[in-house]
Amino acid sequence: GENVEQHPSTLSVQEGDSAVIKCTYSDSASNYFPWYKQELGKRPQLIIDIRSNVGEKKDQRIAVTLNKTAKHFSLHITETQPEDSAVYFCAAYLNDMRFGAGTRLTVKP
Amino acid sequence: GAVVSQHPSWVICKSGTSVKIECRSLDFQATTMFWYRQFPKQSLMLMATSNEGSKATYEQGVEKDKFLINHASLTLSTLTVTSAHPEDSSFYICSADLVNIQYFGAGTRLSVL
């Protein structure tokens, strides 16, 4: 089955800096790659996603890039704010959704 | 947007009892729903895929007789933790699939005494 690896597990940045989280997947047939943000005690919320026929997608301060050849995709957050602090999960979808281990992002004011 | 309701949000039960958790898609039909388990500070681990009108598909290592899944309608899937034990204490969360996008329930925190 699909295996998703996510790095780093923790990330601390200064407010205004950029944050990058990277994920790799194992099954080249996976065709959908969402990113979720989970705040403490709350449900995961979809923040951005990308499908395998697209290389990059941007939504305001958030962007996702996909390299199908290398089987990796990344989340980029620019101009980080304290409210971006949360756990971020990447996922890869083929027949079901497989999640990465998560990255705890802390944005220091 | 699509809304998924999960109940109860929190349940405490005695060891040996069974607990049923419901996952409902409120404004869309979901042929497929997923059940996850999340331990503190860890990722969501897929337990099983719930398919409307057919048997659930369980992940390796998940006991299907322990975690009973029923997906009797296009808007409701249930997870029953049978003969619960303290090691079953965890956060259980469901999601409903709508064109591959997953909409999550709010989760159920189960504590088994």
Concise synopsis of the structure shown:
By secondary structure, chain A is an all-beta fold.
Question: From the helix content, strand content and strand pairing of chain B, which structural class follows?
Answer: mainly beta
Shape descriptor of chain A reads globular
Radius of gyration of chain A, taken over Cα atoms and rounded to an integer in Å: 13 Å
The helix content of chain B, as a percent range, equals under 10%
Task: Explain what you see.
The complex is a heterodimer of chains A (about 110) and B (about 110). Chain A has strands spanning about 5, 10-15, 20-25, 30-40, 45-50, 55-60, 60-65, 70-75, 85-95, 95-100, 105-109. Chain A has about 110 residues and is mainly β. In chain A, the strands form 2 sheets. In chain A, strands 2, 4, 5, 9, 10 and 11 form a 6-stranded mixed beta sheet that branches. In chain A, strands 1-3-8-7-6 form a 5-stranded antiparallel beta sheet, with no helix packed on it. Chain A is globular and about 40 Å long. Chain B has about 110 residues and is an all-beta fold. In chain B, strands 2, 4, 5, 6, 9, 10 and 11 form a 7-stranded mixed beta sheet that branches. The interface between A and B is medium-sized, with 20 and 18 residues.
Describe the secondary structure blueprint for this structure.
The complex is a heterodimer of chains A (109) and B (113).
Chain A: E1 4-7, E2 10-14, E3 19-25, E4 32-38, E5 45-51, E6 56-59, E7 62-67, E8 72-77, E9 86-93, E10 97-99, E11 103-108
Parallel strand pairs in A: 2-11
Antiparallel strand pairs in A: 1-3, 3-8, 4-5, 4-9, 6-7, 7-8, 9-10, 9-11
Chain B: E1 4-7, E2 10-13, E3 19-25, E4 32-38, E5 44-51, E6 57-58, E7 67-73, E8 76-81, E9 90-98, E10 101-104, E11 108-112
